[in-house]
Every structure is written in structure tokens, then in C-alpha cells.
Design brief:
Blueprint: E1 20-25, H1 29-44, E2 48-49, E3 58-63, H2 68-80, H3 82-87, E4 92-97, H4 98-103, H5 106-110, E5 116-118, H6 126-137, E6 150-152, E7 173-177, E8 179-180, H7 191-195, E9 199-200, H8 203-215, E10 220-224, H9 254-262, E11 269-273, H10 282-290, E12 297-299, H11 307-313, H12 319-332, E13 337-344, H13 351-364, E14 368-373, H14 381-385, H15 392-415, E15 421-429, E16 436-441, E17 446-450, E18 459-467, E19 472-477, H16 479-484
Parallel strand pairs: 1-2, 1-3, 3-4, 4-5, 5-6, 7-10, 10-11, 12-13, 13-14, 17-19
Antiparallel strand pairs: 8-9, 15-16, 15-18, 16-17, 18-19
Helix pairs in contact: 8-9, 9-10, 13-15
The structure holds iron/sulfur cluster.
Length: 486
């Protein structure tokens, strides 16, 4: 269970002898969230954070393992630090996150100048690990060189963060992990290995964390989880007269979380990433319908449109189940928009399988699509058991074709909004066009329009005049004018 208490604390000014931390974060929003937690903990220990590696006393890499390329990037960054460590032996270099979890102490073989490796359920102990290392360095008679390498990679422990001494530093758009890990076993995916089993955060803590973030400037909160809509499935079912949630057998559900967050004063928008079709429930759809702060954009990766490929991926659903859940959702939230991830060139994928994927993407009408070529990940079932038999050239060709199809689909979908008015949360100023602002509609679509920067952090009504596959452009209208074009 994740435990946190939230209050803001004055940060001590950076003194010359104050130790400095630099964190490099690769990968997903969950990593960005975890890096903020780690920074907050070091600041609570009197550290300052620095943007420059040259100034840092401690350099931490929060790593990603989703593709080989991500791991190689970390090793190349580590390689560049070898000389810095030779000229400054007091420097502490730590590696945390998914690659630390997957590779563990083998990291020392490729990067002998690394001092600490902490996995995805041990990074909360990074301050203690650094202190332990510094104590050992200060006592060379007792501790030999090999003792000056610390590894912590168990995934059994819950992630717990004491936030008493933290300031929220995430800006107007905050990310909040409502759960960690994944209980599914898609054959291509490294996440269950690197992040462990599902661990949901109690609702009261989610609400107090959200209030803490909003009290310090957050306006939009994106709820994070590998399968965020399976929230609460790991809780024990309530016994006796314990309060009942809206989830399975009375467990708390993501729908319950949304209803509670809808009540948070000052919170403007609530978003969610990433979902799984098997956990798309009527309760969740009704919560999205009933909570005006919740975006009507749902990232529900399909990954493929062929049942044979979905079976080989062990995704746990068929295209028919996806269709049924989607029909239920659109019955309750007719204007819901969807996003998807796709893997092309999965072992055994035939031309016909791929045609089914193109057709399924068009049938559902996803407004956002991320397309990836299959990349075998060591220790996954697919890498160990399924031959990577789709030639690279075919993977590339299918990747291009699906990207082109995705562009056609999004152009059609976004084109439907021309002439309509949409509610937009204003995020920032254009860095290319003077007097132009950027925002995101309640359907998750980027929108640009002329406006005064004082509108940033508020919601406006925009009458859409143009649309492309990647966004819409329009003019701000008043409430009355908006009502005319709804
Ligand atoms: S649902 Fe599948 S793809 Fe997503 S994190 Fe879990 S195992 Fe990985």
C-alpha cells in the first residue's frame, strides 16, 4: 500500500555547501511521477536540485525498459559520465526504474562507475542508499571497493512515500499514480516483470494527494496506471458493514475515484492513462458521464485488430469483446473519443491479420494512434517462445501503412467538430505564433486559438473553424454564442 501525507514546506535556499541532486528521467509518465517523488525526498533531506550534471553531487537515472533502444540510451549517458567520475570520485551515480529492475547488478558490468542500482519498488529508499554509500566511503578500512556498490531490486515491497517535507513542483498539469504494476501477462510486455503485481493506492490518499497538488497550483490531474481502470481489483472485498465501492464485489473502483475527485475544489480537469478493454465497465462509463471534470478521452490500446494476433499476445480480449465494451461506453457517453497503441509485425502476423488491424482501426475511429514495430524484449514470453518471423522491411511497411490510415481516420474524426463549439482547458502560449494559445478539448484534442495569456489555466469555449489529423483551430466564443453552436 502506498502511504503519503501532504503539506507544503518552505524550501531551504541553495547554500554553496548544500549537496545537489540531478535526476535524468526516461520513459513514461509513471517515471516522471516517481522522479518528482525522489526529488521531493532528497529536498526533504536538505538537497537542492540542479539542472546541470557538472554541479551535481548525486546523479540519478530513472530508466525505461519498454524497448531495447531505451536501455541503450541509458548506457550511452552512463558512458559519458565515466570521465566525470574519474575526475570527481566523490560523485554518486545511481540507476533506478525499469531497467534497474530488469538488468539489476549486471549494470555494473557495463558501467563499473555506477554506485547504486534500485528497482521499481526500492527507489523510495534512494536517500538511505546514498547515505549508506557515503558512510562506507568514509570508512575505507572497513569497506572494500566491492562493498561500495549497492543493489536493491525486490518487487514484493509496497511503494511508500513520506511527503511531509515536500513541495509540489509539477506545475498546472499534475500526474498522480493511483496504482502500480500489472496483473496481466501480455506476451510481449516487460512491465509485469519490471513493475510487479498491481498495488492500488487507497482512495482517501488519492484525494488528499490531489488536494495537496491543487493547493499548490495544479489544475489538471492525469491519473496514472498500467491498466488504470483495473484500479481497486487488488483490494480485499469489503466484509460485514465495511463501506462498499462500485467495483467488483464492492471493491472501490476507478469510477469511485472519479466521483471523489469531481468534488475537489480548484481541480478543473481529470484525465486518465492507460486503460485495458477488459476493465471497461458500466460503472466507469457512468462516472465519466456524471463527472463534468473528467475528459471524454479514453486511451484504450487495441494493439491489433486480428483475433489470432490478440490471442498470441495474450491480451485477454477479442475484437468482439472490444466492440461490445465500446458499444456500452458509447451508449452512456456518446461523445467519447478513443486513443490506441498498436504493435505491427508481431510474430506470426500475416498480411490478412494486418488488413484486419487496418479495418478495426477504421471501424472504431481512434483519434490518437501510437504505432510501434514489434521489438522482442528479453525475458518476455514472446521473445523466449515466439520466433520474430516478420521481416524488418515488412514491419516498416506495415508501420507506415497504419500511420497513414491513422492520419486519415483522425482527419475524418476531427473534421466532425468544424462548426461546433468545444470546451477547452487553456494550457500555454504558442511559441511560434504571437497571441496564439494552446489548449486541449474535453475530448483530448489539441486546440489553438487567439487569446490573452491570462486565460491560461482556465476553460474557454472555442468555435472550431479548421481541423486536421493533429488538432483543431478556432475562435473563443462567449457562453451564449457557444450555446448556439452546441
Ligand atoms: S496490460 Fe499488458 S501491455 Fe499493459 S502493462 Fe500489463 S502486461 Fe503490459
Amino acid at each position: 500500500m502506498t502511504t503519503t501525507r501532504f503539506q507544503s514546506a518552505a524550501e531551504a535556499p541553495a547554500g554553496t555547501d548544500q549537496r545537489k541532486l540531478h535526476v535524468v528521467t526516461f520513459g513514461c509518465q509513471m517515471n516522471k511521477y516517481d522522479s518528482l517523488l525522489v526529488e521531493g525526498k532528497f529536498k526533504g533531506q536538505g538537497y537542492a536540485t540542479t539542472d546541470s550534471m557538472d554541479d551535481a553531487d548525486v546523479i540519478l537515472f530513472n530508466t525505461c525498459s519498454v524497448r531495447d533502444h531505451a536501455e541503450e540510451r541509458t548506457f550511452s549517458w552512463l558512458g559519458e559520465l565515466k570521465r566525470a567520475k574519474e575526475s570527481n570520485p566523490g560523485l554518486v551515480i545511481g540507476v533506478m526504474g525499469c531497467m534497474a529492475q530488469r538488468v539489476g547488478e549486471e549494470i555494473f558490468q557495463r558501467a563499473g562507475h555506477v554506485d547504486i542500482v534500485a528497482g521499481t519498488r526500492k527507489f523510495q529508499h534512494m536517500t538511505e542508499l546514498v547515505d549508506q554509500l557515503l558512510e562506507r566511503r568514509a570508512d575505507p578500512d572497513t569497506w572494500r571497493a566491492r562493498d561500495l556498490r549497492l543493489v536493491a531490486t525486490g518487487v514484493e515491497e509496497d511503494v511508500e512515500f513520506e511527503r511531509g517535507a515536500m513541495n509540489y513542483t509539477g506545475g498546472q498539469h499534475a500526474y498522480l499514480a493511483v496504482m502500480r504494476g500489472c496483473d496481466l501477462n501480455c506476451t510481449y510486455c516487460i512491465v509485469p516483470t519490471t513493475r510487479g503485481r498491481v498495488q492500488s493506492k487507497p482512495i482517501d490518499e488519492i484525494v488528499s494527494e490531489a488536494q495537496w497538488m491543487v493547493s499548490q497550483g495544479a489544475k489538471v490531474i492525469t491519473l496514472l496506471g498500467q491498466t488504470v481502470n483495473s484500479y481497486g481489483e487488488d483490494f480485499a472485498k469489503p466484509e460485514g458493514d465495511a463501506p462498499r465501492g462500485s467495483g467488483r464485489q464492492g471493491r472501490p473502483s476507478l469510477g469511485d475515484v472519479l466521483r471523489r475527485l469531481q468534488q475537489v475544489e480548484g481541480l478543473v480537469r481529470i484525465r486518465m492513462i492507460t486503460m485495458h478493454p477488459a476493465y471497461l465497465t458500466q460503472d466507469l462509463a457512468e462516472a465519466i458521464r456524471d463527472c463534468s471534470k473528467v475528459d471524454r478521452f479514453l486511451p484504450i490500446p487495441a494493439q491489433a485488430g486480428s483475433d489470432d494476433v490478440l490471442r498470441a499476445m495474450k491480451r485477454g480480449y477479442t475484437t468482439d469483446l472490444y466492440r461490445k465494451r465500446l458499444a456500452m461506453l458509447r451508449e452512456i457517453v456518446p461523445d467519447a473519443e478513443l486513443g490506441s497503441d498498436w504493435i505491427v509485425g508481431f510474430p506470426g502476423e500475416t498480411d490478412e491479420d494486418f488488413e484486419q488491424t487496418l479495418a478495426f482501426a477504421e471501424e472504431v475511429g481512434f483519434v490518437v494512434n501510437y504505432v510501434f514495430k514489434y521489438d522482442p524484449r528479453p525475458t518476455t514470453h514472446a521473445a523466449d517462445e515466439l520466433p520474430d518471423d516478420v521481416p524488418t522491411a515488412v514491419k516498416k511497411e506495415r508501420n507506415q501503412r497504419l500511420l497513414k490510415k491513422a492520419e486519415e481516420i483522425a482527419t475524418l474524426r476531427l473534421g466532425r467538430y468544424v462548426g461546433q463549439t468545444v470546451r477547452v482547458f487553456v494550457e500555454d502560449e504558442s511559441d511560434r505564433a504571437e497571441g496564439v494559445l494552446h489548449g486541449r478539448s474535453v475530448h483530448g484534442i489539441p486546440v489553438s486559438f487567439a487569446g490573452d495569456p491570462t486565460l491560461i489555466g482556465t476553460e474557454v469555449e472555442v468555435a472550431v473553424q479548421q481541423a486536421s489529423a493533429y488538432g483543431m483551430h478556432g475562435v473563443v466564443v462567449t457562453g451564449e454564442e457557444a450555446a448556439l453552436t452546441r
